[in-house]
Amino acid sequence: MLKNQVQLITYPDSLGGNLSTLNHLLQNELAGLFSGGVHILPPFPSSGDRGFAPLTYLEIDPAFGTWDDIRSIGEHTDILVDLMVNHISQQSPYFQDFLLKGRSSEYADLFLTLDKVWTDGVPVQKDIDQMFLRREAPYSTFKIHESGEEEKVWTTFGKTDLSEQIDLDIRAAITQQLLRSFFENFKSNNVKIVRLDAVGYVIKKLGTSCFFVEPDIYVFLDWVKSLADELEIELLPEVHAHYSVQYKLADFGCWIYDFILPYRVLETLVNRSSRELRHYLADRPANQFTMLDCHDGIPVKPDLDGLIRTDEAQRLVDICLERGANLSLILSDKHKSEDGFNVHQIRCTYYSALNEDDDAYLAARAIQFFVPGIPQVYYVGLFAGKNDLARVAETGEGREINRQNYTMDDIEQQLDKKVVQRLMELIRFRNSHQAFQGEFSVLDSPDNQLCLNWKLEGQQCSLTVDLQTYQSMIHYTDPSGHLEAYRI
Prior knowledge:
The chain has about 500 residues and is of the alpha/beta class. The chain is about 30% helix and about 20% strand. An eight-stranded parallel beta sheet has the order 9-8-3-2-1-15-11-10. It has a five-stranded antiparallel beta sheet with strand order 16-17-18-19-20, covered by helices on one side. A three-stranded antiparallel beta sheet has the order 12-14-13, with helices on one face. β5 and β6 (about 150-155) form a beta hairpin. Belongs to the glycosyl hydrolase 13 family. Sucrose phosphorylase subfamily.
């Protein structure tokens, strides 16, 4: 069973350079902070996308460590890892064998060649126009070494002409066997939770967007959930879609991400009004992982479609741009808003999005921790990191704005920052107070305040945020039932 306590999100090399150092930090400098678990972003050998183009899940990249390091961390902290169920690396041994032998490869059926979508293997543009695209064409053309023939293979993701991420045919028996082997390996190495990355793209069906295609997607989810249940592994599907899709996943029995909360909290603090956030909190599933920041960006479209006015969203986006952010955009005209609004994600650190205001940032974290769900804190957010504009300029990759690495010396310096110490105190409070295991309510308040409350038998804690001053106050009962208070 998952712990209702705070989790850390980090790359395997972002805190001290490797998994062994991460293990040390979790038991020493960061002890008591992330008792909910640690999401280790892909530590596997990968050919691109900072781990999200894995060659295999049966090995750990030697630059990061070994499975011994993973097992050791798992002995004291629940581990969450990613499984990119939609794709695998072009450099994987499976696809390299296919590139050599073509259809005679034992792995040929792993991959989604275009004849599995169009009978004659010839793509039709009017079908592609309906799809929710992540690149201009959803396929790449490869030359088979032995025969010299060309094969067109589905590639949802990737920035290069020959994508590094090759889509898997999840209907094929060999693919299901391979996925089972990955899950069994996770189980044997103390992995507790698996995030199904890009799961919304696994169904390719003509006449649809090829994104979260119903009811077909549930056939796959049924299969993978039964596998996970058999191995006592929790699943966390990662789907950026209209919020109604998330709610369907929650009804299906999955944990889901609250991709709405980061925008709503930012909007609340920038506009100094809790009205929209209070309305949202009145009706949302509780079985969610909450976050403010991550390795990508603050979700906007399609996660908040139908919940926000695009003119108001554009004003918030413009404020973030003024503070150094950059954007991930929707490519397909069909999936933009009617007025052309096309912001998929706002790429920035959350601290910079709040104009590097310590009180506003701590208010944001307090709200996140008081909202029902399992809170996750991204490692850059732990240190109240600022936008890394130099790294973006150096690499040309907008997501590098929020992906800086920290040496042990850097970490020691960050932990001395007052804002970080205040955040750590807040995390420890969230992990320890019993009321968070009880009943949640949103208390009445004027728009320039937000009041959230938890109650469990004789234990209670409440958060009040003054949106004019960004001052946040927690009132709580101590173990003996006496009422105490502290200003965050």
